[in-house]
Amino acid sequence: MLSSPVAYLKGVGPQRAELLQKELNIFTFNDLLHHFPFRHIDKTKLTPIGNISPRDEYVQVAGILAPLETAGEKRGRRLVSLLQDKTGTLDLVWFQSINLIKKIIQPGQPYLVYGRVSFFMGKPQMVHPEMEPWDPEKIKGKDFLEPIYPSTEKLKSKYLGGRQISKLTSVLLQHLSEKDIPENLPPSMLEELKLMPRFQAYQNIHFPKNTTAYEGAVRRLKFEEIFFAQLRLNLVRLERHRFSKGVVFEKVGDLFNRFYNQHLPFELTNAQKKVLKEIRVDTGRGKQMNRLLQGDVGSGKTIVALLSMLLAADNGYQSVLMAPTEILARQHFQGIKELLEPLPAEVAILTGTTKGKERKRILEKLAAGEITILIGTHAVIEDPVQFHNLGLVIIDEQHRFGVAQRARLWEKATLPPHVLVMTATPIPRTLAMTAYGDLDYSVIDELPPGRKPVQTVHRYENDRSLVMDFLKAEIALGRQVYIIFPLIEESEKLDYENLMEGYDVVKTYFPEPQYWISMVHGKMPVHQKDENMRRFVVHDTQIMVATTVIEVGVNVPNASVMLIESAEKFGLSQLHQLRGRVGRGAEKSYCILLTGKKLGNEARERMKIMTSTGNGFVIAEKDLELRGPGDIEGTRQSGILSFKLADIVNDRVMVNTAKELCERILKEDPDLSQPGHEMMRNFLHSQKGKTAWSKIS
Ligand code: ADP
Ligand code: MG
């Protein structure tokens, strides 16, 4: 029933069906059922026309329709009329489907009119209003809310506005019975959580008797949405634990031990040891590992990655480490190559700029198994790259890698390689576990010892010369500084100009030859970027002027000052990432947030948070509160945030309830075969193909 084409619904027909498809993606009865109203209006509540004010957005009025007149010529041609009640008149205007409208509506009759008002020459008007004949007797004493559906200008002009869609939905609901919308949650759960039955919820989200009924319906359907998303992700993880086959890293061998005992430049923190152990256990079971490693900036994820790769090598497998940018890949390469110098393990780098002979040579050696560790950008997952026996894939700063890209890795090996995804807290912990419910989770929640917290201050533009004096003093002590300019993605050109202007200003404060400046930005050719970066790394230059391209990963321990220009233009997690570039060496480090004098409340709040905490988890939570869910890096691709009704932030409590419940259920009944659970399983089956996750397990 629900899969029937919408054209079969009474009152639709082929033409309207086509419009519904094109404009609203409504193809079937089911799509129409899930086209939820964005508001309800009380039909008995009317605004007197004389009371309409410019502050009103949508209003409902009733009155007598005046005669219709055509005005204007050609493209300006329009149909105009007036609606009059006891208190005033409202202008009505139509630009499209003039002939159709002339045929349908009748001047002199009472109409109920709904729409967005605007003011034109001091008078209220409504363009393409939604209209229906008005009969006050018919609705008298009735207690009901009328749904208003999202529609489009085009549909409205074809007489398929929100009101008409409401009629169609009402027809649809009359045709549906409980067996078309079967319950998918067991009665015990409905009772425990006080949830409305499913069929009833669909009725009430569209046509509620009152607000309470509506809210109950929304709550039920939101819960269902969250719960099944959780269930699906958890099942993927469980199935991997139970049935997947993975390469086995059964022993800790020579490479690992030699490195660990003789060449490790520092003692691992307990958190690093704990995570390493989790990885060991996970990769030794014969199941595929799929693990998310979260750890604040500077918490030392790279060494964990390296040790894991040595573990793979000891068991005869190749590894690949993927970084989001060329710069970062190069830095990883240099760092790791140096660390592994004394060991017989070949490390290579492959990026988009590796070309010609060099590329060919690397590809051949990879296929022959002569390269143990490959480091690169996403170029490494491109088709021609064949491994001899890939056993471990590490994805650094994963929020830049999509799910689809991860899936492509599977094609590179006969047995799926283990996967470790590393990220520096772009999302709060609970949220991460929700959004990545299909992954196992590790966290490094401790910074290496001796790290001095970065002192963070907020300064205004008019303190610029004092700030620059401070930078000079630090440079005089032999340190290096970053000066970062914002990147406003909408306009690359503007960004570039901003940066150049900024660079000139910096130059006036820091003239050559006393000072040398490196500059790096997104539009620069890679070799130049690399060269400028290299000069900063080897301390040829004292100052690095850059846009956020250096945001992630870059490691120059001698740098002690991070100056962020127009800091108000950055988001919290970005500021935190940038700040993480300093405080990596032994010296005391500083982060200076430079802003204009006039700051919005939210920007002020961000500066306050930055100066008061250095904890990435806290910052991520705050970031979420300030920005809302629409924009959390790292969760967008995971797909779980694309809920229709639920909102992972505002419905956090519900998310947690659903999560706990899922875990409880799956622990007892991982196959969902117990009585009362089949309905869940059946529902998941009926949804099959809806999720890309099945490809990943
Ligand atoms: P991130 O987690 O941000 O990727 P990195 O792996 O780049 O952090 O590590 C940051 C810095 O801390 C590096 O210079 C690294 O050598 C150093 N480091 C990592 N672990 C330790 C440790 N246990 N003790 C001391 N320094 C460490
Ligand atoms: Mg890192």
Structural descriptors:
alpha/beta, OB fold (Dihydrolipoamide Acetyltransferase, E2P), Rossmann fold, 6-stranded parallel beta sheet, disordered C terminus, binds adenosine-5'-diphosphate, binds magnesium ion, ATP-dependent DNA helicase RecG, isomerase, nucleotide-binding, Helicase_C-like, hydrolase
Kindly describe this structure.
The protein folds into four domains: 1-38 and 147-155 and 162-176; 45-140, Nucleic acid-binding proteins (OB fold (Dihydrolipoamide Acetyltransferase, E2P), Beta Barrel), CATH 2.40.50; 254-444, P-loop containing nucleotide triphosphate hydrolases (Rossmann fold); 455-613, Rossmann fold, CATH 3.40.50.300. 40% of the residues lie in helices and 18% in strands. The radius of gyration is 31 Å and the shape is globular. The model is unreliable at 630-640 and 691-697 (pLDDT under 50). It binds adenosine-5'-diphosphate (ADP) and magnesium ion. Residues 266, 268-269, 272, 295, 297-303, 424, 448, 555, 557, 584 line the site of adenosine-5'-diphosphate (ADP).
Global structural class:
alpha/beta
Oligomer: single chain
Main sheet record: 7 strands, parallel
Query: Which percent band covers the strand fraction?
Result: 15-25%
CATH architecture of the largest domain: 3-Layer(aba) Sandwich
State the distance separating the first and last CA atoms.
Answer: 32 Å
Total beta strands: 22
**Which segments are poorly predicted (pLDDT under 50) over 5 or more consecutive residues?**
630-640, 691-697
Q: What top-tier CATH class of the largest domain fits best?
A: Alpha Beta
Number of helices, where a helix is a run of at least 4 consecutive DSSP H or I residues: 24
Identify the CATH homologous superfamily of the largest domain.
Answer: P-loop containing nucleotide triphosphate hydrolases
Radius of gyration: 31 Å
The set of bound ligands, ions and cofactors reads: adenosine-5'-diphosphate, magnesium ion
- Categorize the overall geometry: globular
Integer average pLDDT:
87
- Please name the CATH topology of the largest domain: Rossmann fold
Classify the helix fraction into a percent range: 25-40%
The strand line-up of the biggest sheet is 12-13-11-14-15-10-16
